[in-house]
């Protein structure tokens, strides 16, 4: 594979374009990451320079190349029941939450759902803790900017290594009894039907939601944004949460703003005031 250099002026073009398009803030320290993760792509496309790739990227009106670029420079690492302390907290929160519901209806947003482990975990969790789970009208909106990870998420098929941390009880209840032809564990269709997967840009797409959510998960997404973008996004999240509803962030993410509208409960869990 041909090693193609990324010049500072080329990196500056990518930095400006990506910030404007998806809000990701690339510091100078990310030069090596961008070069390393995109070199293979340039070779695959037969391009001789990063300037050529920049022109290719901005001329793609479909948005698919932008989606590829974002996936390449992001870390789409996730797993079932990630952030164990937050699930423990949710276990204690659930009884009062359920008791407060006038209708058997739950609406949750998994923002930045990656390959789907998070929204499926939410359903596994509710399935385990609600004795009348099937009687509830549960819908999860699961969004991500990457078409690639959404395609994976919608299939709901996972390698044995991905499910090795799950109990036999959860595997039996949430996955089909028969594995796929590729030997993967397949999420039951009855669970997949409760999730609406959509490609969505948290920074530039409008907040079109008519109704509010009972809780929002947006974990390990805002680490890519600068302070201005984070502040704006959190502010918009608060408009979609009723009083008392939780907002879950990644364990390495914390808020220094919006203290008038969000209270820290612990483990990067915030409650709408």
From TrEMBL:
Q: Ranges for the CheR-type methyltransferase domain?
A: 1-273
- Offer an example of a GO molecular function term for this protein: protein-glutamate O-methyltransferase activity
PROSITE patterns according to UniProt:
CHER (PS50123)
Q: GO biological process: any one?
A: methylation
What Enzyme Commission number(s) appear in the record? Answer: 2.1.1.80
Tell me the enzyme class: transferase
The UniProt keywords, alphabetically, are:
Methyltransferase, S-adenosyl-L-methionine, Transferase
Alphabetized SUPFAM superfamilies for the sequence: Chemotaxis receptor methyltransferase CheR, N-terminal domain, S-adenosyl-L-methionine-dependent methyltransferases
Which reactions appear under catalytic activity for this entry? Answer: L-glutamyl-[protein] + S-adenosyl-L-methionine = [protein]-L-glutamate 5-O-methyl ester + S-adenosyl-L-homocysteine
Record-linked SMART domains: MeTrc
Matches recorded under InterPro entries: Bact_Chemotaxis_MeTrfase, Chemotaxis_MeTrfase_CheR, CheR_C, CheR_MeTrfase, CheR_N, CheR_N_sf, SAM-dependent_MTases_sf
Signal peptide limits: none
Has the keyword Transmembrane helix been applied to this entry? no
* Stored Gene3D superfamilies: Chemotaxis receptor methyltransferase CheR, N-terminal domain (1.10.155.10), Vaccinia Virus protein VP39 (3.40.50.150)
Q: Which domain of life is it from?
A: Bacteria
> What is the protein name given in its UniProt record?
protein-glutamate O-methyltransferase
Organism, per UniProt? Sulfuricurvum kujiense (strain ATCC BAA-921 / DSM 16994 / JCM 11577 / YK-1)
